[in-house]
Amino acid sequence: MKLCTQNEPDREVDERMSTVRRLFKNTTILMLANSLQPLISFYLVVEISELMGAEGLGAYNTIFNYVLIFQISAAFGLRNLLTRDLAQHKEKTRRFMIDGSVIALIFSVLSLVAMSLVVQLLSDNPVVITGTMIASLSLIASGLADVYEGAIRGYERLSQIGYAWLGENLARVLISLWLIFSGYGIIELVWVFVILRFLKAGYYFYYLSRRIVVPFGAVDWQFVRELTAQARVFALTLLAVTIYWRADIIMLESMRSDAEAGLYSAAYRFLALSIVLIDSFVHSLFPVISGYFHSSPEQFQKACRKSLRLLVFVTVPMSVLMSLQAGPIITMIYSPEYEPSILVLQIIIWTLVPYGISQIFAYALVASKRQNVDMLVNITAMLANIILNFILIPRYGFIGATVATLISIHIYVGVQVPFVVQKIIHFGGREVFAGGFRVGLAILATVVTVFLMRDFHWIVSSAVAGLLYLATLFLSGAVSANDRQLIMRILRRPDAA
Fold first, then answer.
1. How many other CB atoms sit within 10 Å of the CB of residue 26?
2. Beta-bridge partner residues of 421
3. Which of 87, 206, 281, 375 has the CB geometry, 3.0–4.6 Å to 287, for a possible disulfide?
4. CA 493 and chain centroid, separation
């Protein structure tokens, strides 16, 4: 008995380290996939614009905007729902997979029909109509893929999702480029997208069948109805999030001009790329905290607090450095006509810090089965963002849209706080104050370094400032001894631990 009690803590430590390593691996792979995806797609768009002209590019973008919109109803919010529930109840995997697939098929077919009807009502371009109707077939694959991804995420196998995303996008670009240079048109490119989307869904099915469970069996229609009622909340949340992040560009284009939308978008790209880091991390974290909430409330608390602290440690210096170096960053990437985008970047990059906090809060709400609250918070933030843009854009243009984005994300977090702080995630006041003070010292060192090295190239000064920031965090005690040991164990080879 004595020997067993001595080994039990070691077993718990090994399990936690396995979880942390898996989280680190999943985050890295998803971050790579999410970062490369827009870059790869951007190259394809450039080639389409050069070889098919503005008309071809316009038709291509229009077709895939329809896909983007109707994917929301096709997926019906099943991915996050299945991730949470399977992380907590793996014994129900087969039931969730079978009945979730039925729901996905039903709503995918309905979305397919609706998408085909809408494009015929709104467009008179035969290429757009034909291409959109072909692309609507992909909604079936997308709906099923979301169910499969939810299950894979629930089992914390997110690296498989990253591999699938990378494979799909690389294949799509390479095949599409070959078709373009061979003289084929938009319709052939759409077929490539549809076929690859089905192949990705097929890969997920194969992986699940071999490694987790075969998603075949009798349908429980009562459970289908229950699952649909739960998924509806997730679908509405996804719709609110989509509108929240797209309202500014749409309103700026319609209320001001394409030129102002371009100036805003030029800076916004840097925010979008930075958000990839946060999204990759929280997507990997979600199944972990969902499982902890069900099995170990203490570990749930620790995981949420440590994740919040990590994101603050990372996003604050990113915001500071990109704000201070906005001038050379914009002028290096863009032509002189984009100089007004410098101010946009200096302001909008500060969205990063509250965004990171909001994502931990949001996934904590969902993991604790308070998705109704999360939905209401997202709807409130969406309405606030639309109202702010409606007020500020007519008067201040793209700067107004920038300020609206920054204010609305703080409203988002502000609405979350009374539902999360001390109710779901518990904080010690002294711990928060001490951590904030130490981060403040590190940021002060960063700002002073950039100022003293203002005659150096911005990449050099930023690198030195970043290293000094990390050193200050360690020396001030912001990174505890336990955190340092954890970092070393993550970086160490598993067989050497």
1. 25
2. 425
3. 87
4. 29
Token pair listed for 416: 């979350």
DSSP at 36: H
Is 294 among the domain residues?
A: no
Q: Please, how many CA atoms are within 13 Å of residue 292, restricted to the half-sphere of its CB?
A: 22
For 177, the domain range is 1-219
In three-state secondary structure terms, 16 is helix
Q: Does any domain span residue 23?
A: yes
d(CA 120, CA 133): 9
56 dihedral zone (left: phi>0; alpha: psi -120 to 50; beta)? alpha
The predicted-structure confidence for 139-178, as pLDDT tens digits, reads as follows: 999 999 999 999 999 998 888 998 998 899 889 989 998 9
Answer whether residue 387 is part of any domain.
Answer: no
Positions in the chain short of pLDDT 50:
1-6, 490, 493-497
The pLDDT value given to residue 221:
94
* 41, 174 contact by CB (below 8 A): no
Please say whether the dihedral angle defined by the alpha carbons of residues 175, 62, 262 and 380, taken in this order, is positive or negative: negative
**Do residues 186 and 131 lie in contact, with contact meaning Cβ atoms separated by under 8 Å?**
yes
Neighbour count for residue 338 (Cβ, 10 Å): 17
Query: Please, what is the Cα angle at 26 between 149 and 307, to 5 degrees?
Result: 110
d(CA 398, CA 392) in angstroms, rounded, equals: 9
Cβ contact 190:59 at 8 Å: no
Q: How far apart are the first and last CA of the chain?
A: 25
In a domain, 253, yes or no: no
Domain count, the chain: 1
Write down the pLDDT at residue 481.
Answer: 65
